[in-house]
Amino acid sequence: MIGVFDSGVGGLSVLREMRKALPQSDFLYFGDTANVPYGGRKDEHVRQLSEAAVQRLLKFNPDLVVVACNTATSIAINQLRLDHTKLPIVGVVPVLKTAAEQTKTNKIAVLATVATLTSRTYADLKEQFARDVEVLELALPEWVLLVERGILDGPEVQQSVQQAAERIRSSGADIVTLGCTHFPFLRPTIVAAMPGIEVLDSGPAVARQVVRVLTANQKPPDQSKAGSVTYLCSGDPAAFSQVATRLLGETVSARKA
Question: Do 202 and 181 touch, CB atoms closer than 8 A?
């Protein structure tokens, strides 16, 4: 079983990709909706919330845990790995390497939360993979809140995305990387507002890494059955279920963790 957690519903975009790659696997998703968003919290609080989320997942004896939150990955994953040395933990970071390699204008944009963009993990990632390109960094916490409310289109979304798109076009960036797992749910509007600009997100890369880690640890899924998903949240299960149902396009029934 694969445990997955995020501050809210954003990690469902990563879960969606993992289910495509591992249709026989069982997943347990925990959304910490009582504490969303993580992006504006102090680092120590993010580490505490992340550890609490892992502890919830450990009750179900997962083979692997995915930190499906860019903020939690950027701030807490190193400590989580130190504290849980026998548990494989996979995180999610902006796909800077691919963006930097593929840009033709030598300019890219990263859309994320303040916490991700100011983290040491992100700074190291940029130094390693994007030191030779110009990087426009936009913190867009309002997008997290829109997705948490299940608002994926309409005037509010259009206006916010258009404002970001204008800055990106003005910068000359030809590739945008979505550095928050909530943002892929706004992808149709983002793509429409930025014709000619490539939009990348981390979901597929995380799914591939999970497959690699499971294979290396000799934990392949049972090929004889279809996989299942269990949904937990720390906030209102009915509200989570309603939004998750819209995001995934299938009926989701969550229970309180």
Answer: yes
Helix-strand-coil split of the chain, %, nearest 5? 50, 15, 35
Domain at 113, CATH number: 3.40.50.1860
Supply the pTM of this predicted model.
0.95
Residue 156 has a CB neighbour count (10 Å cut-off) of 12
Average pLDDT over residues 228-249: 98
Q: CA 97, CA 99: separation in Å to the nearest integer?
A: 5
Q: What is the pLDDT of residues 153-172, one digit of tens each?
A: 999 999 999 999 999 999 99
Catalytic residues: 69, 180
Domain, as residue range, for 230: 2-92+204-256
Q: Specify the pLDDT at position 225.
A: 77
Same domain, 211 and 241: yes
Is the pLDDT at 221 greater than 70? The verdict is no
Q: How far is CA 256 from the centre of its chain?
A: 21
First to last CA, the chain: 17
Beta bridge partners of residue 109, listed in sequence order: 136, 176
In a shared domain, residues 24 and 146: no
Q: Are residues 195 and 139 in the same domain?
A: yes
Residue 218 pLDDT: 84
What's the CA gap between 180 and 38, in Å, rounded?
A: 11
Whether the ω angle into residue 204 lies within 30 degrees of 0, i.e. cis, is no
Cα–Cα distance between 47 and 51 in angstroms, integer?
Answer: 6
SS3 (DSSP) at 41:
coil
What is the pLDDT of the chain when averaged over all its residues? 96
